[in-house]
Amino acid sequence: MIFFAAAGAVLLPPVIFLLILQARRMRRLAAQVSEGALFRNMVNQVRDVAVTMHDMADGGRVIFANDAACLHFGVSRETLLTWRPPNWNPTVGAADIAALYRKLKHGDSDTLETMHRIATGDLVPVEVMLLCQVHEGAPVIIAYTRDIRARKAEEARRLAYERAEGYAHDLNERKRLEALLQRREHSYRTLVENLPDPLFRYDTECRRTYVSPAVERATGKPASELVGRTPADAPLVAGAQNERLLADIRHVLASGKPVVSEMAYQAPDGRLRQFQNHFGPEFDANGAVTGVLSIMRDITELKRLETLMRKREEEFRALVENSPDIISRYDLDCRRVYTNPRGVASLGGDLARILGTTPADLPGGEPGARYLEAIGDVIAQGKERSIELEWRTGGPETCLHVRMCPEFDVHGRVSHVLAIGRDISEIDEYRRVIHRQAFSDALTGLPNRTLLSDRIRHAIADAAYHGHQFGLMMLDLDHFKEINDTMGHGAGDALLRMAAQRLQASVRPYDTVARLGGDEFSVLLPNMRKGDDLATVAGKILHELAEPFEVEGQELFVSCSIGIAMYPDDSTGFDALYKYADSAMYHAKQMGRNNFQFYQPEFTRRSQDRLELEAALRRAQKRGELMLYYQPQIELQSGGMVSAEALLRWRRDGYGIVAPDRFIPAAEVCGLIIGIGEWVLRTACGDVVRWNQGRAVPVRVAVNLSTRQFVRNDLAGSVRRILEETGCDPAWLELEITESLLLEDSREVAATLEALHGMGLSISIDDFGTGYSALSYLNRFPVSQLKIDRSFVQGVPAERDKCELVKAMLSIAAALRLETVAEGVETAEQAEYLMAHGCRLAQGYLFGKPMPLAQFGALLLEQDAPVQ
Ligand SMILES: Nc1nc2c(ncn2[C@@H]2O[C@H](COP(=O)(O)O[C@H]3[C@@H](O)[C@H](n4cnc5c(=O)[nH]c(N)nc54)O[C@@H]3COP(=O)(O)O)[C@@H](O)[C@H]2O)c(=O)[nH]1
Question: How far is the CA of 787 from the centre of ligand 1 (A)?
Answer without folding.
Answer: 12
